[in-house]
Amino acid sequence: MTSQVSVLKLYNTVVDDVISGVRDCFLDDGVDEQVLQELKQLWKTKLQASGAMDPPQPEPTMPPPPVLQNFQKANGNNVLPKRTIDSHMAQGSSQQNTGMEHGPPAPNLAGTHPHHVLDPSNKVPVQLTLPAQPGVPGSQPRSFTIQIPASALNGNKLHQVLTGPIINATISLPQPLAATLLQQHINSALAGQQNEFDGGGGRSGAAPFSLDGALDSSDDDGSNVGDGSDDGAGDDDEDEESAEERAEEEEEERDESGGAEEEPLNSGDDVSDEEPGDMFDTDNVVVCQYDKITRSRNKWKFYLKDGIMNLAGKDYVFQKANGDAEW
Amino acid sequence: MSYQLYRNTTIGNTLQESLDELIQYGQITPALAVKVLLQFDKSINQALSNRVKSRLTFKAGKLNTYRFCDNVWTFMLNDVEFREVQEVAKVDKVKIVACDGKNVEDRR
């Protein structure tokens, strides 16, 4: 495609042309020449920083995931997420795992793992299980471990973060990808919403179905955050609910399902048309003029001119571009 | 005189950001910024029609959406391959916004 060098040259021409074209306007307004030079400098710097004129990379480089920074900021110190489970974590991990999946009230945890609660910046490994994909033969529930800050164990933060859409987005991905995506999602969500959560407002983003999936028979603890079946999305705020009610509901759940039944679909299960990857796509945009657009039946032809394209973050220009497509 | 649609490009957006900063610091007035943008419209339209010589072709797997409104065509294309001689760029989807190229003289 048109080499970035010529785009750069074109842009420099335009910058110079604009700056010299408005010099009189600046004078008329009594604005110092210095400001005009500053405008030119700002503009050129921003153009450079956009990377749109950089020579194409041999292979697209992924930007480093911003999650680590978020973490550091959110926790106010430099603890990095641990990638491995360290010993004392591991020994308590089974309890923690089940704990996280079901989102027990915080006091539970405080009792069993005071250490983590005292140091909210600690990372705790949590095992998640993605349910088998409905309608995909041979699909298995998959488990993986992610790291979350211990502070997120207080309240149901994880459940507020792991909402239906993100689960749906990850469910069809290969396991390593899914784990990475979930980890990043959790990291950024927790970092961004730390304060909000601490404020304790009831949120309706509760996980619409159980994270531990159909084949997990565990019914080990008190909370029923996953049971979206009868009370829908709001059910994170169940802290006010009496223990009795909770027990009843749990019983119902066990009776009706035996752990294997799918919950009814609700809006939280919506799958958008977009592929998960598209969420991070750059917008590819062509801005141009048309000489002619023709259509016969479903076949379209485009005769375009004077265009500026931004494809995958790089700029290209054209005098003419002809193309076709079927609708 | 000149189309304003090129303001929504890398070079146009960076100019607008720069102007915004200068306005915020009180160094220029919004009215002066508007004059700069009008000059930009003129310069970029001229530069594109006079200085750019590249010709390319493209082929889209699918025209997903089209819209014609106020003489502006907007297309969403999927699986597009842009080709200039032997160089190729492929994208999953692209949005094309196109003003009427025959009409330039009549524009305000």
Q: Give the uncertain stretches of chain B in residue-range form.
A: none
Sheet bearing the most strands of chain A, described? 3 strands, antiparallel
H-E string of chain A: HHHHHHHEEHHHHEEE
Structural class of chain B: alpha+beta
Radius of gyration of chain A: 27 Å
Distance, first to last CA of chain A: 26 Å
What is the average per-residue confidence, as pLDDT of chain A, rounded to a whole number? 65
Largest sheet strand order of chain B: 1-2-3
The CATH H-level superfamily of the largest domain in chain B is Transcription factor IIA gamma subunit, alpha-helical domain
Task: Order the strands across the largest sheet of chain A as they lie in space.
Answer: 3-4-5
Round the mean pLDDT of chain B to the nearest integer and report it. Answer: 92
- What name does CATH use for the topology of the largest domain in chain B? Helix Hairpins
Number of domains of chain B: 2
The shape of chain A is flat
Task: Describe the structure in your own words.
The complex is a heterodimer of chains A (327) and B (108). With 327 residues, chain A is an alpha+beta fold. Chain A folds into three domains: 4-50, Orthogonal Bundle (Helix Hairpins), CATH 1.10.287; 67-274, no CATH class; 282-326, TATA box binding Protein, subunit D, domain 2, CATH 2.30.18. Chain A has helices at 4-21, 23-28, 33-50, 67-75, 87-102, 106-112, 114-118, 157-161, 164-171, 175-199, 243-257; strands at 123-130, 142-149, 285-296, 299-311, 314-326. Chain A is flat, with a radius of gyration of 27 Å. Chain B has 108 residues and is α+β, with helices and mostly antiparallel strands. Chain B has two domains: 5-51, Helix Hairpins, CATH 1.10.287; 57-100, TATA box binding Protein, subunit D, domain 2 (Roll), CATH 2.30.18.10. Chain B contains two helices and three strands. Chain B has helices spanning 10-24, 30-51; strands spanning 55-69, 72-84, 87-100. In chain B, helix 1 packs antiparallel against helix 2 (30-51). The interface between A and B is large, with 61 and 67 residues.
